[in-house]
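Marked as duplicate of an earlier ticket. Keeping the data here for the record.
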Amino acid sequence: MHTDGHGWIGETTGRSARPCASARHGRGALARPTIPCNSVSSVASSFICVYLCSSAADPDPCPSVAERRRSIIDSSGPQEDSDRARPWRAGAAAVAMGACCGGDPPHHGDRGDLARAAPRGAVARGWADRSHLHRHADLPVYGYRHVSTPNVDALAGDSTVFDRAYSHTPQTLPAHATILSGELPFEHGVRDNIGFTIKKDQWFLQRGLRERGWATGGFVSAFVLRKATGIDQGFDTFDSEMPAASPELSVGQVQRDGAQTLAAAERWVDARRDPRFFLFIHFYEPHKPYEPPPRYRQYLPYDGEIAYADELVGRLIDHLKAQQLYDRSTIVLLSDHGEGLGDHGEQEHGLFLYQETTHVPLMIKRPGDGRQRRVASPVQHIDLVPTILDLVGAPARTSLRGRSLGPLLDGTGTIKETGIYAEALYSRYHFGWSELYSLTDARYRLIRAPRDELYDLQTDPREQSSVAAGRPLIRQAMRQALESTIANASIQAPSAVSEEDQQRLAALGYVGTGSKTPLALPGDTLPDPKDKVGVLEEYRKATELAGGLKYPEATALYRKLLARDPEMSDVWLQLAQVLVRQGLTAEAVSAYREVIKRIPKDAGSLLGAGSGLLRLGRLDEARQHAELAVSASPAPAHELLARIALARHDRDGALREARLAEQADPTLPMPLYVQGLLAYNQGQYAAALPPLVQARDQMLKRRTLQMNDLNYYIGDSLARLERYQEAEPYLLEEIRVFPHNTRARASLAMLYRAEGRNADAERAIQELLRVSPTAEGRRLAERLWTMFGEPQKAAAVKRGAG
């Protein structure tokens, strides 16, 4: 078969590896100490790059990891485990697939001629972000024995498998920006999942390939990689559509099943006629909450999601084989970062830079190779772009620090040693604790912190005992090299984030909203994250409880955290949101105001407080809060101002604010919504329906986030017109998306009663009390039973007996 063509799925191309000194050595490999360091890296030619997000690679013996993992996931699981530490530890799985063929465009011809002229391939990337699949050791190819992954195993059998590949950041969006640009986070400027977008003129691999005539397609499965971040730049097609959702988010509403993403990607591949294409496909499995398909119930939930991710990879590979692409493709499997699983106190990722969150799986299959090689030398994410450019015959980008890994794929050469940089700014941005930086070579890892840590990875691969005090010369040399690297890497301030986006990202586990600690303060003067990991884990636990609708328990834990540290503004915000969902509006407004005290311009808190004040009928205060949020978050602020105007019966003001909201966000159908509400408020239910239904249709076409009350007003209008069968689906949809909308639940109970479905009406009231076990919810249920002529049941609700 041809070896000068390129097939990609993910990050590599399908051309036979060849040395390229300029691409391999790049611009100033990271400053590094003058101590022995044997760093090597590798990448594939034609690619099916399966990128498994949040995996960590750690092949060293660590029997306690699996035991801790089981205790997290399923306490009833088997107790025996002698596996290696899991290299694939994290959650969102992504497979990026791109088929790249040839250097220059092939001659025109039919599809078969094109395939013969230039070998087609695919690059697939798959990762598990925040689940544990992406730890380097959570795959059988790295020694894990508690799940079967036949598809990944088969791919590994045809690939070069890298035992020491490293990420530069334990966060999904910054890691992706690095993988696709070949730049470190402080170079491309995306330092966190929240509050950062990619600059408009950012060079990405997909852009460079498109300029050379390649078709480029990206398909992602999670909100954190949405188009608005700018990660779509350079893709001809970028599909980031998520299921319609609401601010009352579950993980299922901020991600989509990998099978849906795969189907969209396969359709795109099938439509290609030119064999030179790059496809990036991202899966979010495995990811908490672990809910694998029933066919994998024989496994622990986490392992079941690993098996499902393997199935998706297998489906992709089968599709490539059916299209006669697999053998002529380069396939790359890697992860963006790993998962803590408690090894150093962190269960997820973002806080620390130890092996479990920076060590990731990487394997690369070249076209027609069919042999497995193992590479033990350290490699890094920024080596991938230079490698791919080398393999496709594109000019090297001399500004990049990374090295082409081509010589390692067939064992014909070596690459220049370099220290591997990583950063973790999550703690600084979200909690005001010190940021962390690290430098890793073939033997040591230095973690720069208020109390530096130095680990000998040869003798202490689990990083249990720092040798910083005993090896001061090594520590000093590595610290100087690290300081030289970050000398001009200032910590930029994040942009404001809407409450809507904060809630969606929190549903994915990205908790924390911002710190008032000045970014100019030296990190060494701030709390060391090692001393605060317990606080973070309690916070994440509270957020998990909230995501599971266990609001009283979440409230208690948030209050416990605030009693210990009342300056944690992000905890105040999360507390406010769970209070809202319990109907405790006045308490929620007080919590929002605690955030505003500390971060006066926080748009999410201003809007949250304003919405609560509107519900309390304190309209002047509500308007003042909304107006303060206009500059930072214009569309939601004008939407709130429109609702306040409606409460004042100010028709002209409501329509004016609705138009301003739509101008700020054209996907928001506020003018139609307001027209419908004006008619509804006047009792003109038939007149209200056309604009409300039109608003809903527009919303579903344009938005992934639904508007509160829209389905309710349609359903309630239909019910008042005695069109009960038409009304019921709208009310049920409102409740599905906004489970705490007690008005919708009350309207549904009245609909059932009107139809003589008394048992359904009673169940609807019981559900109302379940989701709103508050005085407000009990009063509403009591009124319903009184209205239905059931005084005994009304009295029982009043007594608290349901």
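See parent ticket for discussion. The chain is about 45% helix and 10% strand.
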